[in-house]
Amino acid sequence: MLLLCPKIKHMQSWSEYQSENKDRFLDELLGLLRIPSVSADSKYKDDVKRCAEAVKEHLLKAGCDTAEICPTSGHPIVYGEKITNPALPTILVYGHYDVQPPDPLNLWVSGPFEPEIRDGKIYARGSCDDKGQMFMHIKALEVMIKTNNLPCNVKIMIEGEEEVGSNNLGKFLEDNKEKLKANVVLVSDTSMISMEHPSIESGLRGLTAVEIEVTGPNRDLHSGVYGGAVANPLNMLCKLVASLHDENGHITIPGFYNDVLELTAAERKDLNMAPFDLDEYKQELGIKEVWGEKGYTTLERTGVRPTLDLNGIWGGYQGEGSKTVLPSKAFAKITMRLVPNQRPAVIGELFQKHFESIAPGCVTVKVTRGHGGEPVVTPTDSPAYLAAARAIKTTFGKDPIPTRGGGSIPIVALFEKTLGLKTVLLGFGLDNDNIHSPNEKYDVFNFYKGIETIPYFHKYFAESF
Ligand code: BES
Ligand code: MN
Ligand code: MN
């Protein structure tokens, strides 16, 4: 008799459905990884669009009621939803389908957009950040829908501009407050300590970007004819940039630390309880010594302290051999990672004022302020965090360790500001997945572990209502 009821007839366990379909799940991910959806470079614009379309098709295939491509003045946002019952709680899943540029190409063992599995790891640009991780959500959704076992409503929003600062997503949130109504945001775009030590990031650093142009003489000069008598903008830029840190690794911009929230002794103790082996860390990175702000541990330096880093510096002659030139201009790109309660606009302004004030009269300095994002701290006692912790306990057999992530996902602060929603960062990457670097990888194991864990989050979260 029971067999006549379609719901029961098709009732299958999540794990059964997952193991029956796991090869296809992986194949489908490889298909997405073959699309070079590089958001920063306009030559990939059509590929980015093609990737958005592929994501939309996957949402429909997973069983979403609707899925659409929402154009923006930049790259499109893909949005889909499955409303089981409006009375049930709703999870808003966020991820990104755009990727970082793949250069330097010559350092990749296999092509960045020709995914290859070696030693149980998927090598491709975006395998971990974030196609592999966002795709786990699409597949987890498929698992729950196809087994008639979705315990809540799901809205899913996958954007194409995360790697360039999510400039159009803020407006999308503003314009679609009603449509995006949910109880929590769930994001897999961060990392864990290891599979043996599962962890959940409970914070992200903010970011503010600046570009510098230093101009000296009105044209490139012979460095013998003029050298020593006219300021070299490259020499000056190096000197100015070097002065931004003191001998203790502190940033010298006046007021830079004014709003930094210092941790209490107890919070610092907790943060440093996370398993961390300094020798292993150095060995893995091929460095003899770590560097950083005096008085703080490596975990504190990446988790709760702000930074200032050159991301690029150029000018003058870069070709083969040598050229005795005194260049007319020098350039640099700098980003600063921010922590609570620093604000990107304030820090950008402090930087600009300071940098202009230390510029010597022999050169002209121009500072242009770029994109930014606010730092966030996510609660570790909310029902959503507890549901995530329970989900991990279920599939890893261990309680997750709360950590503070060093990376930034600028939109997370806006989920709270615009939609009033807290975020859970349920990431499955590893710090050594080479995100933004050559040979980015994602372990097949982590991919499947994510698909296995995510449905439990939905279940436990829904049960907490
Ligand atoms: N997924 C990363 C952020 C991340 C990585 C958080 C690892 C925690 C651990 C994201 O795609 C990213 O790279 N964000 C950029 C921000 C940006 C370009 C505005 C970043 O952190 O540099
Ligand atoms: Mn990412
Ligand atoms: Mn990234």
Labels describing this entry:
single chain; 465 residues; alpha/beta; four-stranded antiparallel sheet; 13 helices; binds ligand BES; binds manganese (II) ion
Word description of this protein:
This protein has a six-stranded mixed beta sheet, with helices on both faces. Strands 13-15-11-16 form a four-stranded antiparallel beta sheet, covered by helices on one side. The longest helix is centred in the first third of the chain and has 20 residues, at 14-33. The protein is α/β, with parallel strands linked by helices and 465 residues long. Strand 4 (116-118) and strand 5 form a beta hairpin. The protein has helices at 6-9, 14-33, 45-62, 131-146, 169-175, 233-242, 265-271, 278-285, 298-303, 344-358, 383-396, 411-419, 444-463, and strands at 66-70, 77-82, 90-96, 116-118, 121-123, 153-159, 184-187, 191-192, 199-201, 203-204, 206-215, 221-222, 307-315, 325-326, 329-338, 364-373, 376-377, 401-403, 423-425, 429-430, 441-443. The chain starts with 5 loop residues before the first helix and ends with a helix. Mean pLDDT is 96; it is low at 1-10. It contains 13 helices and 21 strands. Residues 129-130, 162-163, 165, 189-191, 204, 207, 373, 405, 407-410, 435 line the site of ligand BES.
